[in-house]
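User: What would this chain look like folded?
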Amino acid sequence: MTKSFYVMKNSALLIFLLTFSIVANSQEKNVEVAVRSSDTASQKTKTPDEKAEFEHAINQSLAGERISLLKKFLEDFPDSAMKVRAQEIIVGSRAELADEKLRFSDTEEGVRLFRLAVEEAPVPVSDKLFSGLLVKFPSNLFFRGQRKDAIEVAKLIEEKIGDNQTQLLGLAAFYLSVENASEAKRLAGKVVEVNPESAAAYHTIGFANRLDFSLEAAADAFARALEIDPESITTKINLAEMKRALGQSSEADSIYRGILEADPANVNARTGLVLSLFDAERREEAEAEMTKALDLDPNNLILLTGASYWYAAHNDPQKAIETARKVLTFEPRYTWTYIALARGLVLSGDPLGAEIALLTARQYGNFPTLEYELAAARIAAGFYREAAEGLRKSFSIEDGKLKTKLGGRIDAEADDFIDLLARERRASIFQYTPADSSRDSLKLKELLALSQDIDSEIPDADVETAADEFISGDDKMKMHRQLFVAKALLEKKKALPKVLEITKDAVFGVDNALEVTTPSAAILADELYDSRKLAEARGQTILVPDIPKQTLSKIVRGKIEEIAGWALFQQEKPDEAISKLKLATTVLPKDSAWARSTMWKLGTILESQGKSEEALEAYLKGYSPERDGTVKKIVVENLYQKLNGSLDGLEERLNKKADDVPKTSIFTNKPIAESNVKPEEKPAEQDPDTAKQNETESASPVLTTGNVPNRVPIARSAVVKTQPLEAKDDEIVKSGVSDVQTESPAETVLKTAEKEKPAEDASVSLKDKILESGANITTLPPVASETLPADKDTGSTIITIPKTETEKAKGSPTAADKILVPAANITALPPVLPGNLPPNPPEKRDQNTTRGDIPLFDPVIIKVPKTEVKT
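Assistant: Here's the prediction, encoded as structure tokens.
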């Protein structure tokens, strides 16, 4: 039993141990499996999820974080199917950062990021990446003033895209937008080398040649493009435009009619047809077709501007003015509209109105034709000095040849202005016939030659020849030219005997000279010069006062004697000089600016002859305490002290003189009424003597202010209508190379009133004055935008124009800061804004964008598209 018990016990123990071993082994295996499973699960958890990581990266709001995560994604998944997409998003994010840096004036870093974005772009560059981002980089830099960097970035892009024809032509479009025709032609040429049958390449070459004013070459390129793609309407229209520009109106007519047969609603073709009919002198037919075209599109900018210029070129000023004013009702930024309007105004006898139109146009464009047209208006008004200065900005004469840079880029020369500027006009508005006359063109050339000769070191005989050429003629403006030349020679102390000869002859032309359309402007040109230059620099212009002819006659006769007297003194003939100057003082209006000027010169000569007492009297009569600076006062003090031993009594004499000076003169009038004068208020009654003198001697110009919105291109071939937009500073308007997108202007509100109308009529628009049929722009109504103090010397109204920050830093105002003409008529011109319009729809302009000098196109602001993630 004991033995049996032990056997059973041992058996049970053996079974237990065996069972335990099996269970333990099983548990160990389970643990091992569990551990292995745990490790596998852990390994699966640590393995990156490609899609999730990509989505996480691209959904980052900050560009910097987006770039970092996408860089990590590319490291983790170098062979991912989303690799290219990730690289493109990195490029867009770099561009976003670059744009931000430029907006905050960190230019160097912004440029670096643009370069880096191009370098990181995947190859081959997709069309979406190229057109959506890369091709915009150079524009972003160029129109923010970084022109050199823009071209360098464009070169980097060119290396990236290789021989991709579409992208090469896209990059060529950038060069066209910045008027770099040579680079545009080079890229288009690369495409032609690869694909000689590329119509788009030849089309680009045509545009580039037009930019270079090579009209024949442009026509050839468009013709070749049309051979390759005979159905291209755009190419047909561009070819027809070049035919018009070359004077081949019948060929243009045929092309336009062919387009209209297939598509009667084509606005561009109908516009071209009408203008080609005008070009062919088929006026009645052209006007009938124009009526139909305007029924379809009343705001046809190109048609109306072209017709207006044609009317001006064919001596129909009223139609030219009327048609141009129609354009200004919906688009006041097109430079050629103002040129056509100005030509009409000059022909109708209103050169001052023409000058205002052209000064307005100059805010929207800057090219030689515009300077020439402005000079033509000024020479017609008698502002010879300003006309000469304007011409010398853009033109020169060498060996008898006129020279300029067409479009500010292309060297050109010709014998006369008409031939010199023909290509600018023809490339811009395709008008073959000029609106200026050969006589006017010749006078402007003679003026430019005279201005150059007077300032150069050439013999007096040559200067005299130039003077005679400019003076020559028997027109009513001859005497005004004589006085201008005589004074210019006298100031430079050149050809002094010629000065006397001119003044002797000028006397016989006074009465005839007063019959011109703007005698006040021509006679007061010297006195208005400083004020006009200051006003122009501040975006304003002074409208000339209307002075009675009797007073003008006194002024001009006195000026002739003064010039002759001073010329005699320069030739060491003091006795004759004194006689002439004394005669001048008896002729000139008493206590006027001219009388004081003559008295001061007389005092100078008398003192040089030892006649100190007489000299002092002349100095005192020629000195104005309120207007003259310390230099003249020192002269008076020195002579007074020399005669009296001290300055005792001088101040009393000066103060008595100031009190004795009348409070009115030819340059005075009653003060301009404040703009807030109520209708029921009556003006203060005037002293009878003052009223009588004002009535006979003074007609005052007035002050107006206003704003005009953004500019429009110099020349475009087609019009694309857009919805009217309110023009604000932070909005930009854009157009392509061959189209115009217009933005309706903000209405210009001027608180004004007609000179002879009561204050209740004081509200009128500058635009309305220009557009109003028969409106005289030179008589814009008054508005007092500032308090206008009365001049203590003469009672004339002094307008102190607000100083700029730069001018404020220079110190106290000088005499140039005051306009001493009567209630000077100043009309504000629009601010200088960027030029031609770029090829995108309007978008908000960033207020921190820097512009540099005035570009021809507005900046293209990059907007990085939101990334779409497909699940």
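Residues 1-9, 13-20, 29-46, 663-871 have pLDDT under 50 and may be disordered. If you want, I can go into more detail on any region.
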